[in-house]
Write a structure and sequence with these properties.
single chain, 8 strands, 8-stranded mixed sheet, globular, 5 helices, alpha+beta
Length: about 160
């Protein structure tokens, strides 16, 4: 099944930018040249966005390729397709990867077993709120929001997976 998504490189040191392009190209199977702009939320770094089209699972492959550089802050989305949920994968330096399924409208979906586990471990209402917030990615969204806003109006490149 063919789907599409977006890679948001929220911040990367300039020296790493060519490696990010090579990593994306390795997954997409075609040359990649991103439009890098300064990231005002973290001076001295650059940001870029690229929309992609490819097979279901491409988002996960892109995130795996990009996590080779732990200093890169990125977010990969993959739209839902026939037989596959969408997903959102984030990487923040010093935090690692956060991955979740998303619905067709982009809402985070928390599975029944995950909810049961959160409820079973809860010892207080504050603890329950905290664990539900982590499952929803609220803390990640709060940290990423200044980087997202800094990219308003940034040009987006389109890529199509080959092969």
């Amino acid at each position: 099944m063919v789907t599409r998504g977006v890679v948001f490189v929220h911040s990367a040191p300039a020296a790493v930018c060519p490696h990010v392009e090579w990593a994306i190209a390795g997954v997409i199977g075609d040359r990649v040249s991103l439009s890098w702009t300064p990231q005002p939320a973290q001076p001295g770094t650059l940001r870029a966005e690229v929309s992609w089209k490819g097979d279901a699972g491409t988002g996960g492959k892109l995130a795996t390729a990009l996590r080779a550089w732990p200093m890169v802050r990125f977010e990969v989305t993959e739209d839902a397709s026939a037989g596959s949920d969408g997903e959102r994968i984030c990487h923040l330096p010093e935090r690692g990867i956060w991955r979740t399924a998303v619905s067709a409208n982009g809402d985070v979906m928390i599975g029944e077993d995950q909810l049961r586990s959160i409820l079973d471990k809860a010892t207080s209402l504050d603890g329950l709120r905290h664990d539900l917030g982590r499952a929803l990615g609220i803390d990640l969204d709060e940290e990423l929001e200044p980087f997202r806003r800094a990219g308003d109006g940034t040009p987006v490149t389109w890529l199509h997976q080959v092969g």
